Amino acid sequence: MIIQNQSDMNQAWEPHGDSRVYWEKNILIMELSDGFNIEGALVCINKAKALIETREVLYWAFLIKLGNDDTLLPPDALHDVEQFFAWCQREGCSAVAYTIHNTVQQYIINQLFKDSELPCEQLKQEAAAREWLNERLIPI
């Protein structure tokens, strides 16, 4: 049996994972790289929320570009990210597209959106992801 120190169980860790979030017209772009821990995922969510709250468009779409095979979300962050996407939908997001590199990423994304009504697509090419999003954007 493994016993953990109680202080270790409540310890906050340094955020892992890199993110860049910015607007291109009515598409919010999130570029992610490296592996994330829950703290890194929360930093990324907060960056996106700050931009969404100050947006100048009513309806928008979300393009999430996963940088490489190692760009992964840990299981303990799934709930927070699911809640974030539900909030995005309430804030006018009409669709989410991911650029992916492997089946592990695909599995994680499927878990995020399994109970969501927000349309989500996973594509290998950014151009295809942008085209898919543009077809689902509500006219401004």
From TrEMBL:
It comes from the Bacteria. This is STAS/SEC14 domain-containing protein. It comes from Neptuniibacter caesariensis.
